[in-house]
Amino acid sequence: MATNLPKVDVIVVGLGWTGGIIAAECAKAGLKVIGLERGRSRGTEDYLRIHDEYRYALRYELMQDLSKETITIRNNRKMPALPMRQLSSFLLGEGLGGSGTHWNGHTWRFYPYDFQIKTMTDQKYGPNKLSKEYLLQDWGVTYDELEPYFYKYEQTAGISGEDKNPFWGKRAQQFPTPPMKKTPILKKFEGATQKLGYTPFMLPSANLSEAYTNPDGEVINACQYCGFCERFGCEYGAKTSPEITVIPTARKTGNFEERFHANVVEVIKNGNKVSGVKYIDTQSGEEFIQPAEVVVLASYVMNNAKLLMVSKIGEQYDPDTGRGTLGKNYCYQILPGATGYFDEQMNVFMGAGALGMTIDDFNGDNFDHSDLDFIHGGSISITQTGYRPIETNPIQSDTPTWGPEFKKNSIYNYTRTLGIGGQGASMPHKENYLSLDGNYKDAYGVPLLQMTYNFTDQDRALHKHLSEVCSNIMKEMGAKTVDIKKPITDYDIVGYQTTHNTGGTIMGSSPDNSVVNSYLQHWDAENLFVVGAGNFPHNGGYNPTGTVAALAYRSAEGIVNYSKNGGSLV
Q: Would you call 500 a catalytic residue per the annotation?
């Protein structure tokens, strides 16, 4: 029997970047907010002397426990979907900060083109550039409408960067802090890309170039370039994360309460509204009903979609009929690239998660696609994240993967190898979607989420094109040997790719094409907001965090307005 608790103004499910932003903004506005996080509390003090590659990078100390909850995966509807038993392709965060704790810190704004991709593609190339199996649509909001929210997040996070990219959307203000150090490795990339006629610039980074105090009074320290960012929490408080920014801001208001080990299993719906959530204390096993005036789903892409599905809120997408929007437009990313082997040694063991240089000459619609069999593109970057010794064994493609030659080459190449990689945009396809699994359940008796996903012809063509660009740059940088990424075939969960999962709870201009409106307010329940990268109708050529955060700030503004006035926000 579940225990009923006193009603509050706002419940936020999940305390990563999106949940932290919503909690801080609503609490600052005077609303009483409860944040429910199924993981544990943690902070900078927990990451002191955290340089344990085996524990954090290989055994995923900060990630979701798949023995309690996972997802099932298949490439197509004819295949059986099987549970993901070990984290690999993407890394699901859990605990205070979520994926915002173990991220690298790349912080981008999606292109104006991204938000109006259907309109702009049709205008330039006609409505048949891609087949009807690709489900392109505009987002229901424009870059110009989001620009102030992008900057609000950059101010909160103290993002380090430079406005030298001629292609991206216009900025109203400069970055809050200067770019990171331009190392000899980055200068090598800069010189080569300039010779090829491209325009390199420093990657916008949440690893800060200098100490910074944000508008809420939170202090973020300067990066030490230790090389332990991705999959690690920052021991210096220099990689901006929710634990050192938005969560402390929410706490200081006196209007915010955190509850940890609180796994939400249902959103309770009554008519055209929701009344609260049901959650389980994962330590005691007790069940609780937490009523609220507003419910905000701010957990990861997969869990937001799952909670709506198990709560029967919205219509499940059907790939046969095209009806329904819940679970539709699941997208991932492709990782084209090239590896170069050099004679000279370089300090590759030093770095930071977002220390890098980028070109955008092949991102968005920055190049002509008239004679190409794909749209969009990807950012192309060299990053100096810090090669860690257990995972890093660079060998040429013709080297055996074991034995004396493998050992000799991997040791020799460790400080003589560089990689250039692209983040290729992913377009929605009718056969790529999320649903509930009919066979498997989690530790709490709730059906697992099922992912049906495979790379498409669009993905394969874009991957090939961008890999060739990366290879040409690497040759210009002076590599004695260059290995280009092999063409992609079918998607495989084995091997890390990116934690840039999007779609499933997409935003749009009407209930016919989306789950939520442009304020991320659910079309079927006016006091329910669903916030995260699941709102993206397609994935872009960048990391999603900056765009997720901008949408979260806009949604928070909408939640505060809804709390005062009620009704639909659009």
A: yes
